[in-house]
Amino acid sequence: MNIHEYQAKAILRDYGCPVSDGRAVLKAENAKTAAGELDGPLWVVKAQIHAGGRGKGSFKEADAGEKGGVRLAKSVEEAAEEAKKMLGRTLVTHQTGPAGKQVNRIYIEDGSDIERELYLALLVDRQTSAVSIVCSTEGGMDIEEVAASTPEKILSFSIEPATGYQPFHGRRVAFALGMEGPQVKQMVQLLDKLYRAFTEKDMEMLEINPLIVMPDGNLKVLDAKVGFDGNALYRHNDIIALRDETEEDPKELAASKYDLNYIALDGEIGCMVNGAGLAMATMDIIKLYGAEPANFLDVGGGATKEKVTEAFKIITSDKNVKGILVNIFGGIMRCDVIAEGVVAAVKEVGLEVPLVVRLEGTNVEKGKEIINTSGLNVIAADNLSDGAEKIVKAVKG
């Protein structure tokens, strides 16, 4: 689960991290009041979407020369006007894709004097099963670009879970970023606060880009991007309350309400599979036969008829789907349950695209009987390869 910048900064502020004072704006008529509560003399107006690259992004149907999603203002009135210009419009960045995201929230904060821009992130490292620190002197840039062009400017190391954060970790980062004097102590303290926030709130990513050094030598968190481990949200009702469902894919949102593991993709063949590994293999073999999967969908081992029905509805709601492949290897999951769900869903929402079903495992004969006697126009497949070949042929002719 991701949250907006202003929400991330509120969490970090609670942990004592240095952030600018700011106000969130959801309605244009509140922009002037929000800006007036800040001191100035410089205001920063930021579009709030769950994507990076806002400053370099552009609005659809933008006027010639119009600025991106991060703008500077030199008066309360100008800040309010810039906020009104962005609210309700669609911002396109390199992370949103060409469709962009609609801006429903604006964050207005005090401007900051900047001497240096740095990069700092805490991430879950799956290889070491530890929290990793990533830092670079190249703040303000995409870290992927830095990694590709100047990897020597990135320092990355893991923190031993048994000991947790230690002051020497902070000093290592400070020295790598060229800090000296009081800045080293500030970095030791800041990283301690960030590590505590990361672990206590079950984050999976905490990216500060940029972390700035101001002319007076002090550090400040100028931007923050935070993502949380969805499996741990049951422990954090305060974090769940920050969820902005308008930022999520409607299909993925609907799937989450039925405990379905669904991720939308850009292809034309919808997939319904049980088991993450089998789902990945199904996507791979669809590509092998010359097509692209429209989604990753794992209905899980304990899916009910109702869950399968909802999963089928989610797949068919994708206008890009030109065909559907159901691939079930029944172990814990019974093939007859899958068959009943597919039949119920098709009767409820209709079937306008080719459907290939491959069933194998527990109660497979019952499942096939349910499909065969349903009266539906279903193409049967004997195995995974056969199923992939048949759905691709049905879609592409």
Automatic annotation (TrEMBL):
InterPro entries the record matches: ATP-grasp_succ-CoA_synth-type, ATP_grasp_subdomain_1, Succ-CoA_synthase_bsu_CS, SUCC_ACL_C, Succ_CoA_ligase-like_bsu, Succinyl-CoA_synth-like
- Specify which residues bind Mg(2+) according to the UniProt entry for this protein: N209, D223
> Highest taxon of the source?
Bacteria
**Gene3D superfamilies to which the protein is assigned, alphabetical:** ATP-grasp fold, A domain (3.30.1490.20), ATP-grasp fold, B domain (3.30.470.20), Succinyl-CoA synthetase domains (3.40.50.261)
Which PANTHER family does the record match to this protein?
SUCCINATE--COA LIGASE [GDP-FORMING] SUBUNIT BETA, MITOCHONDRIAL (PTHR11815:SF10), SUCCINYL-COA SYNTHETASE BETA CHAIN (PTHR11815)
Quaternary state and partners of this protein?
A: Heterotetramer of two alpha and two beta subunits.
> Which family is it part of?
Belongs to the succinate/malate CoA ligase beta subunit family.
**What is this protein called in UniProt?**
Succinate--CoA ligase [ADP-forming] subunit beta
Q: Which organism is it from?
A: Pseudooceanicola batsensis (strain ATCC BAA-863 / DSM 15984 / KCTC 12145 / HTCC2597)
